[in-house]
Each structure stands twice: as C-alpha cells, then as structure tokens.
Specification:
The longest helix has 15 residues. It contains 14 helices and 17 strands. The protein is of the alpha/beta class and 397 residues long. The protein is elongated and about 65 Å long. 35% of the residues lie in helices and 16% in strands. It has two domains: 167 residues, Phosphoglycerate kinase, N-terminal domain (Rossmann fold, 3-Layer(aba) Sandwich), CATH 3.40.50; 193 residues, Phosphoglycerate kinase, N-terminal domain (Rossmann fold, 3-Layer(aba) Sandwich), CATH 3.40.50.1260. Bound molecules: adenosine-5'-diphosphate and magnesium ion. The site of magnesium ion has 4 residues, from helix 12.
C-alpha cells in the first residue's frame, strides 16, 4: 500500500540522518503546552538511534515569515524532546551555516541535534535550491517524518530530497497507510463530517466528499455559510459572504447527501459567558450568532453516523474552546467513538476537541496533520511524499 522506502529499508549504521519532523507545537512563554507531535516522532527517532545513526532534526514552528522571531525558537522544544527521550539533545540557534555544520559533524552514533526553526529563513517556504542543498550537506540521508507539512513543497520538506536519498519515517508511513487505505477504497456507508471555521479552505474537500461519501454532515461555522446560502438570515454569525454563491451550487448538487443543522445554539456575544438559547436556523435573533449545533441536530447526525462503515471527520461543530458551546462537538464525538466501522479524525482543533472529550483512544486514527489530511481526502498528491524513493523501483544511492 505505502509504496515509498522507509528507514526500515536502510542500513543505518554510521549514517547521519537529517530528519524533518513536525514540531509545530503550541508554546506558552517557552513551555510546550501540548507534546502530542513530539511523542508522535519518538518511534522514528528511537529506531534511528538504536540502529546506529546520528540524527539532525529540523522543523518549522509557527509563521515567523522569514525572520528570526525569538518566541518561535525551537530551543524549548529541544528541551522537551530531551525529557521525552530520556537523553540529552543538542541545539544550535541556526539551521544552516558553519556552526551547524561543525555541530553536525561532531555527532556520534545515537546522538541527536535539533536545528533552529527553518522558517527563520525566507528560503524555506520559497523552496530555494541553494538553501535546500545547504540543509542536505549536513547529512547522508533524508528522512521525512513531517506528515503535517507534507502537503507543502518547502526546502526542508521537498527541496532537500533533490540532494539526498530520501525515505519516510514511521509516522509518515502510518498516516499515509491509514488515511490512504481508508480513502482509496472507502467502505460504505461512508459518512463525512465537516465543521470548523472556514469554508473557503475546504471547498475542494466538500466537492470530493460529495462525490465519495454517502452522507456529508456539516456543522460549525462552515454550516453558517451553507445555511445563509439556503436563505436563512444568520444575523451576527460568522458567514463567508464571498462563498455563498458557491455554497448554493453545492447544496443543489448534493441534494439529500448534504445534511445541515436543523437547530443551533446561538449567543448574544462571542464569549464564554454570553447569554444563549437554542433556535432553528430561520429564527436567529438580530445581533445573535451561531456558536454550536443544537440537540436535535446532534441526534440527527448521530443517527446517520451510527451505521457507518467509515467516518471521516474534520472540524469541530462549534466554538468548543468555550465550555458552554462544546456540547455539540462532544456529543457527536461520543457517537463517533461508538461506531464499529473505521473512524478517522483529522485537523489540529478537531484532534484537540477529541482529546478534551477523552475519546482519543476510541477513535481508530487521529491524524496529526490537518492540512495534509485534508489534501489526501481531496485526492491530491503530497509533494513531501511524492519526492521520496519508491519502494519497488528506486535504488538507495
Ligand atoms: P481543524 O483545526 O480541526 O481543521 P478548523 O481550524 O477548520 O478545524 O476550525 C476550528 C475552529 O472553528 C475552532 O477554533 C472553533 O472555535 C471554530 N468554530 C467552530 N464553529 C464555529 C462557529 N459556529 N462560529 C465561530 N467559530 C467556530
Ligand atoms: Mg485549526
């Protein structure tokens, strides 16, 4: 199924591996507040060091836009990684140049060095070949384990693979195997659930899901735009005016396959302690806004989900960060957790909502990558995967 070479295909003894990880983790004043992505990289890192390689790690963190932004340094991430691995981890405050070169050359088998945020250089997102070649010069092998960044052709995710033999790490392999297998030949009934903030980010996904899935359930702010397109006055709700025409077309095309909320929890302000009430979509009071799906919608969506053989879910049903508006997402998550068929959740906020509900263990696969998993759902190829050596046809060196 996964047709790329992985670190299992390489004799690692004595090799220095440049590993692209997805360490784009939330930081609060220099403390990693969610280490899920760090823990997800451990199988690959442990395998590399146990098999005699030394490791140079690189990642982006946030959007520093090509400048050095001290609050987006990977230094605290290296520290956290060292705790998780139970061994010391080096750090250099650069990702290319003589200092980095010297630190990389000093590494002995089993040692790990973390480089500074690749996006401190504008060449990273520009996929600049000279910058990619400099990164490549640090190692003998490139390992891409950054599934969450695989949909971007940047220097450290794609460019570098033009200069080094490139293979996948275990996280990449697992994500693609799971999502790829489920999406290539989906089992039916296939129920897709979409929510979250923005419809414009997810139009391609909606179109593809309307083709592939038996039912598409839409909640969250995304539903507001559809509800507005269906003729409802959504008052102060978050609606993407510029997508309304498109949403109209999609509603027409979808027919019964698309289900929108039949009731909403609305609030008189965007805040945790706002007044709230449950209304039908044609009855949102002036100045109020949709914050969650209502109880009848939860019931309807749960009934559809119950019989599914495959459920793919991206995007929360409401503003789950505010406890009073988390109920819809939580109740639907409980329904999905009970499904006997395959269940997949993708997206950073969706994964956080599932975690918050304590249901991560009851979902078959919670993907670490939002954008990348959406592009897979859409049927697109991921540049950070395409560039890796093919299992059957490519030689290693
Ligand atoms: P993911 O990260 O899982 O892909 P998104 O980033 O697309 O999800 O969307 C998550 C965000 O959508 C959350 O911050 C949530 O508060 C917001 N959201 C969901 N429903 C609403 C709503 N009705 N109004 C405003 N924001 C919403
Ligand atoms: Mg998000």
């Amino acid at each position: 199924m996964f047709n790329k070479k992985t670190i299992r295909d390489v004799d690692l003894r004595g090799l220095r591996a440049l590993v692209r990880v997805d360490f784009n983790v939330p930081l609060d004043e220099g403390i990693v507040t969610d280490d899920t992505r760090l823990r997800a990289s451990l199988p690959t890192l442990n395998y590399l060091i146990e098999n005699g390689a030394s490791v140079v790690l690189c990642s982006h963190l946030g959007r520093p836009k090509g400048e050095v932004v001290p609050s987006l340094s990977l230094r605290p991430v290296a520290k956290k990684l060292s705790e998780l691995l139970g061994q010391s981890v080096g750090f250099v405050a650069e990702c290319i140049g003589p200092e980095v070169q010297a630190a990389a050359e000093k590494l002995k088998a089993g040692e790990i060095l973390v480089l500074e945020n690749t996006r401190f250089h504008p060449e990273e997102t520009a996929n600049d070949p000279a910058f990619a070649a400099e990164l490549a010069s640090l190692a003998d092998l490139f390992v891409n384990d950054a599934f969450g960044s695989a949909h971007r052709a940047h220097a450290s995710t794609e460019g570098v693979a033009h200069y080094l033999p490139a293979v996948a790490g275990f996280l990449m392999e697992k994500e693609i195997t799971y999502l790829g297998a489920a999406l290539e030949k989906p089992e039916h009934p296939y129920v897709a659930i979409l929510g979250g903030a923005k419809i414009s980010d997810k139009i391609g996904v909606v179109e593809r899901l309307l083709d592939q899935a038996d039912q598409l359930l839409v909640g969250g702010a995304m539903a507001n735009t559809f509800l507005a397109a269906a003729g409802n006055d959504m008052a102060a709700s978050l609606v993407e005016e510029e997508s309304i025409e498109l949403a109209k077309g999609l509603i027409k095309k979808a027919g019964k396959h698309l289900m929108l909320p039949v009731d909403l929890v609305v609030a008189d302000a965007f805040s945790e302690d706002a007044a709230k009430q449950v209304v039908t979509p044609d009855d949102v009071p002036d100045g109020w806004r949709a914050m969650d799906i209502g109880p009848r919608t939860v019931e309807k969506f749960s009934d559809v989900v119950e019989d599914a053989r495959l459920v793919v879910w991206n995007g929360p049903m409401g503003v789950f960060e505010f406890e009073p508006f988390a109920a819809g997402t939580k109740a639907l998550a409980e329904a999905v957790a009970k499904v006997e068929g395959t269940t997949i959740v993708g997206g950073g906020d969706s994964a956080a909502a599932i975690q918050q509900a304590g249901l991560t263990d009851k979902i078959d696969h919670v993907s670490t990558g939002g954008g990348a998993s959406l592009e897979l759902i859409e049927g697109k190829k991921l540049p950070g995967v395409e560039i890796l050596l093919d299992r059957e046809t490519d030689d290693l060196l």
